[in-house]
């Protein structure tokens, strides 16, 4: 359904360091770097048919996080959720809401963690698992 997700950054080099480390925990490689015709830098991280992008705003205004927006990244285990979370914190992110852990809801058990990147964008690491495998 989705082609890509793009978030804005006010410090593109800081964002690349953050996302290289955090997305690396999911097996994502180096991003494609693109200079827009406007001169603004963009990074495109591609993995398993999905694209996550970070850009300097091309309108020249300050990047701001979307109110009510969350970008969720699929993880393969509860441990990968914890590593994603801890790596985000080690690279300038901020833990928000509850600590990484199991959440029960109408969609079944999920192991997840929420963080904000250095620009304030809300990220979620999520594993849809079952009780028997630690989620």
Describe this structure in words.
- By secondary structure, the chain is of the alpha/beta class.
- It has one domain: 2,3-Dihydroxybiphenyl 1,2-Dioxygenase, domain 1, CATH 3.10.180.
- The chain has two helices and eight strands, in the order E-H-E-E-E-E-H-E-E-E.
- The chain has helices at 12-24, 78-90, and strands spanning 5-8, 32-35, 41-47, 50-55, 71-74, 94-103, 110-116, 122-128.
- The strands form two sheets. The chain has a four-stranded mixed beta sheet with strand order 1-4-3-2, covered by helices on one side. Strands 5-8-7-6 form a four-stranded mixed beta sheet, with helices on one face.
- The protein is globular and about 45 Å long.
- The protein starts with a strand and ends in a 7-residue tail after the last strand.
- Mean pLDDT is 92; it is low at 131-135.
- This is VOC domain-containing protein.
- It comes from Wickerhamiella sorbophila.
- Pfam families: Glyoxalase (PF00903).
- InterPro entries: Glyas_Bleomycin-R_OHBP_Dase (IPR029068), Glyas_Fos-R_dOase_dom (IPR004360), VOC_core (IPR037523).
- Residues 1-128 form the VOC domain.
